[in-house]
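Journal club prep — side note

Before the paper discussion, L.F. wants everyone to see what a predicted structure for a comparable chain looks like in token form. Sequence:
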Amino acid sequence: MNEPHVLELLRAHRLLVDIPDEEVAWLASHGELRRHAIGDVIAPALAPVEALFIILSGRVAMYDDRGSARRKLMEWGQGDVTGLLPYSRLQAPPGFHLVEEPADILTIPGRHLEALSRECHAVTTQLVRVMLDRARHFQREDLHQARLASLGRLAAGLAHELDNPASAVVRGARLLVPLLREADSAARAIGEAGMSADRLEAIEKLRLDCLATPLQQVRSPLEQARHEEEVADWLDGHGVDLENIESLAETPLTLAMLDELAGTVEPPLLEAVLRWVAAGCAVHGLGVELGDAATRISDLVKAVKGFTQMDAAATPQAVDVGLGLSQTLAVLRAKARAKSVRITVTVESGLPPVRAVAGELNQVWANLIENAVDAVEASGSVEVSAHAAGDVVVVQIADDGPGVPADIQETIFEPFFTTKPVGEGTGLGLDIVRRIVDRHGGSIELSSRPGHTEFRVSVPVHAHDAKVATT
């Protein structure tokens, strides 16, 4: 296409409407107008950006193919610019630029950008504004993706942690009604027998002794199997035909207790009494089990609420680092347990609060601890500690994994850099960590050698008279 036609197209571009004619002419003379078809890739992902693209018609989008699905990062149409921009520190785009509608694009090679900045001041001003908007967009998108990834990990860990107590609640609720029915039936039989007060007192004493003895502290699994045989022999010897021997054997009743009962209650009523005691003990045990399971569920919900700080405003306040670490470990415990990784936490007594946004700080701990768990071998260990050092609180997260190679330690905090296999890491975790720590006026350092990798995060202490956030 001839230069007058290019000038006409550039004049219609929304960013160049008020640009002096000589600068528009400079763009036309230093660029090449190219027509692209649908499906053309004008800039590959994670490769050096080589040109400025002034989009005159059509539509171009940037996609990220990492992970399980293609994701659109940005989109440009007629009147937009993308690619290499003046003063931009972008070395390689996080995704590839794909033409989605037939497009006319004026391509200006990167070697001309220094001259562009020198010769075309008005154009440069416009492009710098575009660059700043793009940087803000990428930052928002990175934070959004990191939060989504964190939410996915949180949901998976929470589901795993909730499974056992929730199953215990379902099991307990299913068994409770038949046991109550059995207890009522046995109690009716005892009541109809019209026993004396002394005998009733002896039966009640047996029941109370049974309820007061924690079963798990009495017999091991091997001892329990042996006890079941002994109970079956005892029942046969006393002419008692108990339909569910296991229910009685699972109680803390000892043979001595049974002998004492047999000396007080005649054989015809012995069966009803044993049924009543066994059902009562089982109901009591289920009540304890249901209470423990419900408490575990409640504690998990509190930990997740504290971890996400969903009720807190996103403004810096006094934050308890020790509490944040414990909340973070609560939601990551399932992952560590699945890999048999041991995590130890040591928090200095009297640790002062830091000035931070609690939810963001918890995201820092979550990313670093999860990376440590991923880095170690099965049955490895991760050590987390927090202590005060002058006017900062220092949190150290160390693991005994293979370490970070020396040649990549300088680049590990760069966006989209990851050592994980394709599809397993976004490369955003440590970049997000660095940004959050920087925004809180803190610092993060890495030291690594085979067998010991340690991240050291320092966050400024809050004023001593501030109220600590305990959400």
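L.F.'s comment for the group: Residues 421-428, 465-471 have pLDDT under 50 and may be disordered. Keep this in mind when we get to the figures.
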